[in-house]
Amino acid sequence: MKRTLIVLMVLSLMLFSFSALAEAYTAQRAGDFEVKLGIDFGGDFDYGSDSYDVDMGYSLIGEYKYAYNQNINLGAGLNYQFDRDFDDTDGDFSFTTAYILGEYKVTDSPVYLIGHLGYGSLSVDSATFSGDESGGLYYAAGAGMILDNDYVAEVLYSRNNGEVNDEDVEYDKFTISFGIRY
Fold first, then answer.
1. The pLDDT of residue 31
2. Which CATH number fits domain 2-181: 2.40.160.20, 3.90.550.10, 3.60.150.10, 2.60.120.10?
3. Which positions make up the signal peptide (predicted)?
């Protein structure tokens, strides 16, 4: 039931995002593509009641954003987290995430606030966590800055949820990313 509710919520948000994208297309507004490299500082991988420290990792991020109005941008993105190792046990894991995003631009400033909501697919390669694995809800919040109209820098706190062998998994991390806009 919990999984069905999450899937319905994500699908309804995606439907809203696609209708907003269609509105922007018909209004002939062009958007921006961004490609970013993120540095994911070591976080916590919670498995059931146990918590495991995670080494620093890297992410490759692609996003499309368009101006909904003067202060709000909407869009969608993909985030591939390269495999990252556990500190205290053998093995590694990664999430591949698809999400919708919203940005609020601070008036007369290159600074903006950002939020993500989506679904992350979990992949685990570890004897400790062997078995059935599935992804789950992903969300993030943070701030960014446009640098010289062609570059961006962002700081995000994010959480990926999933399951391994019917045990809940949560992965929290901080990310600093730098990218280029097209």
1. 85
2. 2.40.160.20
3. 1-22
DSSP reduced 3-state for 14:
helix
Distance CA 111, CA 144 (A): 6
Point out the residues of the chain with pLDDT beneath 70: 1-29
For the chain, helix (H) and strand (E) counts, in that order, are 1, 11
Tell me the two tokens of residue 60: 């490759």
Distances (CA, A) of 99 to 38, 128, 138, 148: 16, 29, 8, 26
Q: Which residues of 2-150 form beta strands (DSSP E)?
A: 32-47, 50-53, 57-67, 72-81, 84-85, 92-105, 111-125, 133-134, 136-147
Strand 111-125 to 92-105 pairing: antiparallel
Cα–Cα distance list, 117 to 100, 102, 148 (Å)? 6, 9, 28
* pTM: predicted TM-score of the whole model, two decimal places: 0.81
Dist. CA 52–CA 34, nearest whole Å: 32
